[in-house]
Structures
1.
Amino acid sequence: MIHRTLYSHILDDLDRFPAVALLGPRQVGKTTLALQVARERGALYLDLESEQDRAKMTQPELYLSSHLDKLVIIDEVHRQPGLFPVLRSLIDRARREGRKSGYYLLLGSASLDLLKQSGETLAGRIAYLELPPFTVSEAGSDLSDELWIRGGFPESLLAENSRDSFRWRQNFIRTYLERDIPQFGPRIAAETLRRFWTMLAWNQGGLLNLSQFARNLGADVKTVGNYIDLLVDLLLVRRLMPWHTNAGKRLVRSPKVYVRDSGIVHALLSIADQEALLAHPVIGNSWECFVIENILNSAPDGVQGFFYRTGGGAEIDLLLSWPGGDLWALEIKRSLSPKLERGFHASCADIGPARKYVVYPGKERYPIAQDIEAVPLEEMIRKLGNG
């Protein structure tokens, strides 16, 4: 079993907050992690996809009030949207009796409704944690290439062979389109959403152009915007926002958009294995977005990610903004002998980052220029942990 770095954060937040919401896409490992917590804390586990457990929760206040002495884990909590006011009442009652934290661990395939409702009813009582697919630091260097090709969903990464991994991802996409996504938003034709998801994969890491997507899809711009919002809410797609600064330059203001899991990108584009990926034009953008996603998923709390691009084409692939105001500029190169372009130097001159790195797929760390280092991805993640 691969250790998940989020596990200790869950335990810490359960010691500090009455409720913790663990959010993430389906099949990412939320239930496995929650059952590990249940064994350690002696918790009660309820799965609202189970008819038996749903029957227990017909009158949730009556049932849960008899279990205020222990942690209760509620899986697929979005299936019972009226539950949050009940939880607030029970938390406040237990607080008055002297217990301050660790009542509920709520699992959900994140949706806007879930976040909005819990935020309104459990404000000040709940902490949110996001469980992403496996990162390089969790899977380890021996699996880093497979992690990029297969993606970080456990069943895909740990499949016995490439064929089984690819079939799992194809079935995952089909299940999401036909069964899961309709639970969270307005009903969308599965084939239409598949076409849109595939367009995003082809555009991996490109600027978001809603008008172009709308023309290609035969839909209006508002509808396409709603599709993007839904996939972002479900943690399947990320919008990377542009960094704005008073540098006296005309800056790109459209976000970049990409499918967050590289394995899903490859499945959407029918890339079954490494040989097919090496011959595919998406390879560079796929690796760049894989690196960005790993870094953002591994960054400490409060660190935000942006990109920087001027109208003249000068660009920084990833700009990390630290809570204290420092900026780290990261250029991402899929080359064992990376070379920096003039645009990176010009961009750094515009914004003055405190640190500059080139993230590349090699194994050694070495200086490229006086104040710029080439750093392997795993080393970059360790640097983030050290600040």
Note: The first strand starts at residue 19 and ends at 23.
2.
Amino acid sequence: MEGQKREMLYSEEEVDLYELCLVLKKRLGLIAGLFVTAVAAAVAVSLLLPPVYRGTFTVRVPMVSEMQTGNVFNEGGARRVPLINPKEAVKLIANLDRLREEEQLGRLSDMLGISSEKAASLVELTAHVPRDVRDFVEVVMDVRSPSVIVDFKEAILRYLNGNRYVRERISLRRASLLSLREEIEGEMAEVEAMKRLVGDQIRRDGKRELGFNPIEMDREVIVFKQMLRHVETEIKLLRGFETVVEPVVSDRPVRPKKVLYAAIAGVSSLFFGVLAAFFMEWLDRNRRGRRE
């Protein structure tokens, strides 16, 4: 007896797929209407939204040569390392985008040194460090007019190089290099002076036991000259942020994405249309049940 009750209960709860298909067929007009309306609305909104263009460029952070102990550069060329951590540059650029989000266009305009009209055309500004790269930062900016992308690139470079922290790091590094150059020049001058004294003594007294090989002084001078060339090169290469890849501007707007918006609207409308069809059918059955 209990088994029969369970079978009857389960049979009542089973979903009749054929009946569901009949409901969908009956409410096909409702589903189609919601689909067409949603897609048309998404396309209309996409056409009304202003186009957004994307520009991408890459900057290199200030680089310096890594020196060994004793101010001697690595043989075969010094390994160059970032003076400014690329992640710090990403944070500086994120500060600009935060001003945009907070709609502080006046302050954004002052920090970048551009007009308020150009600042207002900025839609989004992001930056990231490419994978497996430690000295580059890729900057992506979305603007309403592609003509301002180059201006924004120059403004962002000025902003990065004008940062007080960046200026101080570069200034300290330059002062350190200048001091190292003076030290090398002084030590090289002492060795050359000693070399001249030894040469004069040898010419005056002839061969004499000196206690060291004079050729070693020539080697020291050569080493000092190599170090001096490295330092001079380092001073010349000590610069701020530089553009390594000029802005690449998209030919077509990246937003609004009409096809994507229409697809999302279509799928969503189909889902809600099916729910609405079953809900309407449920209401009709309840009304008929009350009348009976």
Note: Residues 5-13, 68-76 have pLDDT under 50 and may be disordered.
